[in-house]
Amino acid sequence: MKRLRTIAKTLLRDIDRKFGDNLDLHNKYSEKFYLYMRVLLQEKTTKNKIYSLHETDAYAVNKGKDNKGYEYGTKASIVTTKQSGIIVGVSAHKDLEHDSKTLQAALKNTVSNIGSKTINEAICDRGYRGTKEVVIDNHTIGISIPGQQLKHDTPKQIQDKKEKFKRRAAIEPIIGHLKQDHRMERNYLKGFIGDQINLLLAATAFNLKKWMRLYFFTLFSQNFIFIIACIQAIQKLQQFFIKLLIVKIALKIN
Hints:
The structure is a single chain. It contains seven helices and seven strands, in the order ααββββαβββαααα. By secondary structure, the protein is α+β, with helices and mostly antiparallel strands. It folds into two domains: 2-41; 70-253, no CATH class. The strands form three sheets. A three-stranded mixed sheet has the order 5-7-6, with helices on one face. Helix 1 (2-19) runs antiparallel to helix 2 and helix 6 runs antiparallel to helix 7. The protein is globular.
């Protein structure tokens, strides 16, 4: 550590000597040199460490797995329907937060997509423990997390809980497909806005793939009423995707 501090002090002296009183050069390279100094001086216990010089928004996410202890990038939340598994909401998180703190942003995006009255309960795993409800636009969404079996539960209540929480594991293969089949495992777009765009594109591709499967199934089964409904849903989803993409591009330009 002393050696790194010595290198940092030497760099500062060299910069001051070469730049002199030229304020334009100091202002031009101030952000880069500030970034380099943070990298040189950060320690193991330093908060908000920089893991990548070209992607400063990336942070380390503890996975808690034997084969992969950490992942580096941006945490993303995905909301799907209970039965069909269609992705109805996504959210990328700029800061590293506990899972229970990410529910507000994820459910807010879901409500903006499908309406506030269409979602009353969110089924989550134990990693989201700590939040019992989320209020979005004066609409309360209950958070259901599997817990211990209560003594006063009837056999029917126990069975209902098992059936309800059994579906929460269905999102794991969806995340796997998004990473492997839709290029969400590694993002080649720049910055946090690039992370948001990549997540949105992956979720849209996943939903379109589902719609195309339904379309070809109804085409072979000759259910023309369902074919028309599928075409209308695909067109509506395409228009919604184009609007979101335009908004993201406008934000990036500004």
